[in-house]
Fold this protein.
Amino acid sequence: MMILGLVRWMQPVHGYDVRRELLSWNADKWANVQPGSIYHALRKLSEEGLLRAVATEQVGARPARTTYEVTAVGEDEFQTLLRGFWWGLSEPLDPFSAAFSFLPALPRSEAAAALRNRANLLRASIESMRASLESDWMRNTKPVHVGWMFELWSARAEAEMGWCEQIATRIDSGVSYLPAELENGEVWPHQVGSRSPDAK
């Protein structure tokens, strides 16, 4: 959707300009669009009939540049994807969620320390976003809705930061979180290679 949308907005446009625009948006950090995959994505979208290569030119010894525009099929696909993301709900994938599901595998002290460290990282991220919101760069060069996106990311980070601190406090207080079968003093295996007798 990001690449289709940018080609649609900037067309006719070279892949280089699409890449430069996505990098200026830091899309590799929040939209999972990696700079190295952009040219491949443009070719693939062309093969699928969503984009049309309208010209290829070469200046001197520089690599040839292809100019793209969106086809009617690509326009339909963009509108479908856009509205799907606007009206639907997709939870962002975060490896931390997978790691947290194994909370009992960490010693209490380490788990609490790691959560507080995550809270500190989130706090630094929030401060950075707030600084960006107040900067001339944001006020003078970015559309208003980009600032609104920063506000959303900041609000999410604040909520998670508070949660991390709250859970760290619960862990430190001795609240039990072991599975029921381990409540009687058995130890959850947390060393590499250690397994309980019944582990599979």
